[in-house]
Amino acid sequence: MRSGSINAFALPHNFIGINAGLLLATEREDELAGVLAHEIAHVSQRHIVRAIADMRRMALPLAAAMLASAALAAASKQGGQAALVSTMAASAQHQISFTRTNEQEADRVGMRLLAKAGFDPRGMSDFFAKLERLSGSSENRLPEMLLTHPRPESRIADTRDRLEIPSGKKPAVRSRKAYELAKARARVLATDDAQTLIREFETTLAKGNPADETATRYGYALALRQAGRYDEAQQQIERLRKSDPDRLAFRLETAEIALAKGEPERGWRQFEEARALYPDDFVLAMHYGRALAAQGDPRQGLRLLRPHLSRHPNEPQLYATYAQAAQRAGDLTATHATMAEYHYLNGELLPAIEQLELGLRGSGLAPNEEAGLRAKLKQFRAEALAQDLPVPKPVTP
Which domain holds residue 243? Predict the structure, then answer.
């Protein structure tokens, strides 16, 4: 997510989000992996599903208690207000305890996942220590029992106690380059002031031998393109490609700069050359498909993206990109169907249902298209009703 706040989250349908601010706050790939392992644990332990079920289970008793408090208030204003406050406080404390228990479980399960994947398990506790430093002074904090998440210092102690690194076994050694390039890209995507960022990159490069010159120069090129300084951006990328000609990130940026400069033939050629090297790469397909939808042949974009829908069925942005290409190509049925999937994967059932309803109102639907839309609509409506959402009336056949 293009947000500077330090946060990560898990949502329904196995969707995990990471803010750019969190990525930038990490110093090692192991720290980022620790956060991802924690969020994956939320998914694997079904915490979101359990939270929804818990809220539904608590809804009726809470409503009954509040009605009883209201009845008491009619007889005794002071007593009724006290009862109402107590009821709401008890409900809030239950939710806090439920959430904190899930967070502690996600820490424990995530730690095991981290070690299994070959990352340094200390990455998780190290990042918690960083959160503790960023949180500032310990003065005037809420009591731990009233915090939605465990305090960083308690999580540091808990995760460090669980570290189990076999003697003589070291975590796998990984190249930092991909991680550092991702951080540089996140830094540019998260900024609202490309010019200031450009000056910061220039200052770092002018000092000579930065900690990671490749990532710094890559971020510099991205910021230059964002600022519309395309020739300078191209110079920086060409410099990077001299030492690493086949790196996908550099090839993608070369293509994006060419399109931004109004050189479509060169841009498409760069994308095709990248496809020859990475024919099944999902990130490449997303960039190429988005460019085709915006500036090229949207039907070619649909053909390019279609195989990835089955390979990556849980990627919301893939469906959004496909919908953009379908709309440009004039295929409104596919537009509504894929936008429905996009909303569904983001946990937005009512907008997903609305998109399917719009698709069914279209003219010239083939029988198989109508059947597919109705099957999805039936599924989404059932899930929405199970969550007590205000589901609209179905479209009549």
Answer: 175-279
